[in-house]
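Rotation project, supervised by the postdoc (A.L.). Task for the rotation student: set up a whole-complex structure prediction and record inputs and outputs verbatim in this book. Inputs entered:
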Amino acid sequence: MQTVVETQLQLSNPAAASLEAAVGNTPLLRLQRVTSRLSAKVQVLAKAEWFNPSGSVKDRPALNILRAAICDGGLAQGRRLLDSTSGNMGIAYATFGAAMGIPVTLALPANASPERIAILRALGAEIVLTDPSEGSDGALRVARRMAQEQPERYFYANQYDNPANWQAHYFGTGPEIVGQTQGKVTHFVAGLGTSGTLIGVGRYLRQYHPSIQLIAVQPDSPFHGLEGLKHIPSAIQPGIFDPDLSDRTIAVSTEAAYEMTRRLAREEGLFVGISSGAAAAAALQVAQELDEGVVVTIFPDAGYKYLSDKELWE
Amino acid sequence: MPTLRIPAPLRSYTNGQSEVTVNGQTVEEALQDLLKKYPTLKPHLYNSNGGLRPFVNLFLGENNIKDLQGLGTPLKEEDRLLLIPSIAGGSEA
Ligand SMILES: Cc1ncc(COP(=O)(O)O)c(C=O)c1O
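Outputs recorded:
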C-alpha cells in the first residue's frame, strides 16, 4: 500500500497569490467587427474590467479606499465599512472585506437586480435596502445619515467624495492604458457614475499628453436603465467630479446601450453589462468622426448580473 | 382613486409631486391619465412606437405588472402603483 504524504504547497511569492494582487492589469481588447465601418486607421479598444476578482472595475477603487482607511485608522476598533452603492462597488467591498476580515454594511436601492442582492448576501455583507423611488441618491442619503448617527460603529467610505476612488484609476488604470497602447491613445471615453474612472484616468492621460481627448458618457435622461451611470445634472454631484476636465459629454439612450450590449455579445463574443454597451456606443460615435486615432474605453462589468433583464437580451 | 408613486428623477416633470392620484380601471388608463396631467413625462416613459421604454417597470405591491396582466392589469380604488427604472430588471420592489 502506498502512503500519501501531505505536503504544504510552497509558493515562491505568497503576495502574488492574494486576491488583492489580482486587481487591475486587465486585458485591453480590440473591437473587431462592430468597427467594420470605421477608417482603417482608427482602432477602438476596451479595458475588460470584469477580469478583476469581484467581476467589475470597482475592485480598483474599493481596494484603494480600504487600504487608505486601514492606513489612516478609519477602520480601527472593529468599525464596519459603510457605503451606498447600486451594486458593483458593494460587491467589491464585500469581497475584499471578507478577505481582510473587515465587516461591510451597504445601503442600496431595493430595485437593484436580484442577482446583485444575492451576491452581496453570499459574501456576508449587511444590506440596508432603500426606497427604490429615491434611486441611488436615496441610498446615499440613508448611508450618510447612518454614518452621522453611529460614527463609532461605521467608517463611511463615501465613494462619491473619497479621493482614493479616482486615485486608484490615476495610479492604475491610466498608466495601464498608456502602456498597453504604447502611448498611442488619442481618445478616452468613460461612463460617469461616481466619475472616479473618468477623473482618475483623465488626469493621468492629460499629464501624459495634453492633447488626449477625454469624453464623458451619461444617460440621455434623468430616468434611465443604465446601471452604474448617473445623469449628473439631475443627481447629487459627486465631490470628486470635475466638470471642466472632459472635452465633451455624449448622452446615450438606454435603448441605444441595450442594442450595443447585444451587438457586443453577438458580434464580438463580449458578454458585458449595459454600461459597457453605453461606453461602446459613445466610443464608436467618437471613432466614426476620426480619420485616424486610438480610442480607448472601459467595459465595467460582464453580463451575468443583468440576465434577469429579459428585454435587454431579446 | 389609485395613486402612482413618481421616482425622484421624474419629479421635475410632475411639479415636484412624489405621488399623483390618477383615474383609471387599468394600469394603461392610469398612465394615460398621468400623461394628461403631466404631458412632458411622455418621452421618458414611452418610445416613439407607443410602447413603454424597456427599463420602465411598474409595481403593484410586490408584483411587477409584467408578471400580472401587463398594461391591462386591473386597478382598484386603493391601489398604489410604483413607477421605477429597472436598475437591471430588478424585481424586488
Ligand atoms: C456597471 C458600472 N458601470 C459604470 C460605473 C461608473 O464608474 P465610476 O463610478 O468610476 O464613474 C459603475 C460604477 O458604479 C458601474 O457599476
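Student's summary: The beta strands of chain A are 28-30, 42-48, 80-84, 104-109, 126-130, 154-156, 187-191, 213-219, 248-252, 293-299.
Supervisor addendum: The domain at 20-51+172-313 of chain A is CATH 3.40.50.1100 (Rossmann fold).
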